[in-house]
Every structure is written in structure tokens, then in C-alpha cells.
Design a protein that fits this description.
The chain is an alpha/beta fold and about 525 residues long. The chain has 14 helices and 19 strands. The strands form six sheets. It has a five-stranded parallel sheet, with helices on one face. Strands 13-16-15-14 form a four-stranded antiparallel sheet, with helices on one face. It has a three-stranded antiparallel sheet with strand order 8-9-10, covered by helices on one side. Helix 1 runs parallel beside helix 4 and helix 5 crosses helix 14. Bound molecules: succinic acid (SIN). The site of succinic acid has 9 residues, from helix 6.
Length: about 525
Amino acid sequence: MTRVLVIGAGIAGLWTAVRAADAGCEVELVTKAGLGAGSTAYAQGGIAAALFPDDSADRHAADTLAAGAGLCDPRAVRVLCEEGPARVRDLIRFGVEFDRNGEGLARGLEAAHSRARILHAGGDATGAEIERALVATVRRRAVAIHEHATLVDLLVEHGRAVGAVVLDAGGERAEYRADVVVLATGGAGRLFRHTTNPDVATGDGVAAAWRAGAEVADLEFVQFHPTALAAPGTPLVSEAVRGEGAVLRDATGARFMTAIDPRGELAPRDVVARAVWRRMAEQDGAPVLLDATGLEAEDPGFLARRFPGIDRAVRDAGFDWAVAPVPITPAAHYAMGGVTTDLWGRTTLAGLLAVGEVARTGVHGANRLASNSLLEAAVFAERAAAAIAGDAPARASSFRPVAPRPADASVDDARPLVDREALQALMWDRVGLERDAAGLAEASSLLAGWRAPDPVDRRTAEDRNLLDLARLTTAAALARRESVGAHFRSDASAAASVHPAPAAADLARPDREAA
Ligand code: SIN
């Protein structure tokens, strides 16, 4: 029986664990916090798929490729968009209750989608509902679950991943051995001072895979969400709010997006995020405003019905968005890059797979299309489970093993230990929405001046990962000299192909659903 170790318990990890167990594997799942603590449960907007008669996989693929600014892998995009609808039906079978209206599944519109194709649940609690259903599903399988178990390093023997070293809940080191290891550890928003990500998002899987010798790619492509609430914790205010018709205003109350892009507030996420960032700079750092009052004027009670979680967060922060615009700011949201995989989740290191945000499948290119992340996790987790079960073609010959990276610090290293808050501030200031060679070089040299701690507990293990990933991200941003997608170099020209805008008439409005 194939022994599978899954690391991470968001949609990607839970899905892989369920389907590997269904295929007869012996599955162990380890997760750094409790089940449900990862980014999946934070996803608001929804999951995109071409499920409606006015839509098609081709249309979804065209939107995904356009948002990706010419750097998507078209084969991966085709897989995503063609297999997406079947995976959404699987989610319904797993017990996910998507919102419905009189016509069936309700759907919303988000930026850079030419059709309303975003399914949602609980209004703005799509990820939480998916996590709930998948946790219930995995508990019905014979999967051994270890919570509060922090990945330290992958075990590699004879050029193959054979397990992982993990710190258990009591801080003891333990080795988990397996025939196949699946990384599903999510993203790394905590590299930056402002993020919509939960505190577990410290890039553990990418850093560990890189140290083990796996290839990583596209780390310069970090997606900044344009509309986090400018309040402690920068909670996300879903793009779906703009999809319903909310607009952005500057400090004088004027709309500014339509002068920047014909798609206005529904331009691709990187375009809107940079526009917000610049407008904030022009008004001495004062936040831009998100104005949803028109939605409420049209339909009293709409905001609380359609977006109950955001409504709560906004009110908890002391704002009433039904009567006045609320302050927003960009925040780090999603890593397009990660551990390089083929179309079956296989990395360049034998025995190691990667699924979900930790992976770089090629579907997102330089900028992810909104609500494609949950879909990517589902589609490629299904494929990873098929690969584990032996139902995938042989690995591409271009995959070549790399020697594991040596430890950065020696025992007599005199450099100071990395300071997490200082690292996050540095990444935000120098490796954030706008970058230039001087700032990146400065970041690179400051990062080199820090030493990683010994990973003796969760905090130190995370700090080591954040330092490795910050260095890798900065180096990738320095190496890519042009501006493309989410990677904007203020000292360089834009790459040729960015975001062809569909005709305005082609931007389908969402059907307003009954909550
Ligand atoms: C959002 O709801 O705006 C976020 C959705 C996503 O990241 O795709």
C-alpha cells in the first residue's frame, strides 16, 4: 500500500488526502495549526468555473490567459478550465452548499472575468464552507490527522523525498516517512507587513522544497489585493463587492479607475492595486475609499445579506459601509509562484508533489484571475491523487534533480538573527507593489545580513522559511527587469503583452441573487 504524507489542510491538502485514501493509499496528514486555520477558510469571493450556458471553458481560459499577462502555461490553463466544472460538482457531492437563487446556482462577477461565473457560499464565506465540507469528508476516511505539527524540512534520500521532519505539538522533533510527500502548505503573505493572509501563511512548503533541491519559479509574482480594509489586521473586502457595483473614490470623493482602465474597478487585480497604491501616494498615504453605499440605496439590507462576513468585519472596525465609503488599502494576497510542478502536481524532486498555492503550475502566469485559486487547488489535487494512484503519464524528461541547498548559517556566524517585523517592513517597502533596482539591491543586502534561527519551534521554523523566501523573492524580482503583471519595476518599461481589455459590452454583469 502506498504511504502518502500530505502536509497542509486547506482545500489542496484535504482534497488530496481524501482522493488518495479513496485510491487505497495509507494517508497521514500533518498541519501546522488546527484544521481550518489556513487561507482556504478565509476565501470570500468564491470559485470560478464555466458552468453556465452563456459561458465556456474557452472563455474562462481566455480570461485567465489575459489576466496572466502572457506568462501562463496554456496547457495548465486548459486543464484548469476544462476540468474545473467537474471539480465544482465534486465539491457539491462532498457537501458544499453553494448559494442558490430561483434559477439554481447563484453566480457573481469579479474583476477581469468576461462572464459572471463565480460561485459563492454563505454570501462571502465560500472558503469556510468548502473547508467545513472537506474536513467532514476527510474525517469519514481512514486518514491519520496530526494537528499543530510544523514542517521543518523534507527528508531526501538518494535524490528522492522520503518524508518530512516535523515539530509536534509539544515541540518534539518527529520523522514522518512515506513513499510520496505532498506539499499543500499554502502561500506566504506573511512575508509582507500588510496581508490578507492568516498567520500560518509563512511559505513553509516553498522554502522547504527549495532547501531540498526542488525547483521553484515565478516568486517575483506576488499578488496584492486592492481592497483590504485599512484597519488593524487588514481584513479582505472581496472583489465581489466591486463585482456587484461598488466603486473606488479618492480622498476628494472622485472616482479615478475609469481614467486608468476602460474596465474601471473591474480591471485586473494588479492594475487596480497599483492604481490604489499610487492614488494613496498622491494623497500623502491617506487611504482610498470603497463606496458600496449605492448598492444599499438600491436595495436596503443588501450588503449584510450578500456579504455577512465582510459586513461584520467592517462594523467591528467601526465603519458603517451602508451609509459611507470605507477606507481601503492594498495588501499582499497570493503567491503566483512556488514549487514548479507538471500537470499532475509532480515537482522536480522525485517523490515530492505540490498542490494549491504552494505550487507553481503555470495557470496564473504573472497575475492570477480572481477566484481561480480554489479551483486550481481542486483541479490539481485531483490530478495529484491520480498521479499517486499511478494514473498519470510518465514524468517529463526535462525534470532534473538538483542537490539540496546547504545550510546558510554556520555555528560561528556573527550575523544577527532575522527580525520578522523588520523583514516584513523591508519586503513591503522595497519588494512590494512597485520595485526598482536600487530598492531591491538594498533589500537583498539587508536580507543577507541576517541569520536564520535554528528551527526549534513553530516561530523559529517560520522565521527561517520567511528569510529564505524573502531572499529568493527579492532575487527573482531583481532578475526580472521588465514590468509584467503583478511584478512592477518602476525603473523599467512594461512588457509587450499586458491585459487586453474586452469590449465593455462583453463584461457580463452578475445576476443579483436572492441571499
Ligand atoms: C476576493 O474575494 O476578492 C478574493 C478572491 C480571490 O482571491 O480570488
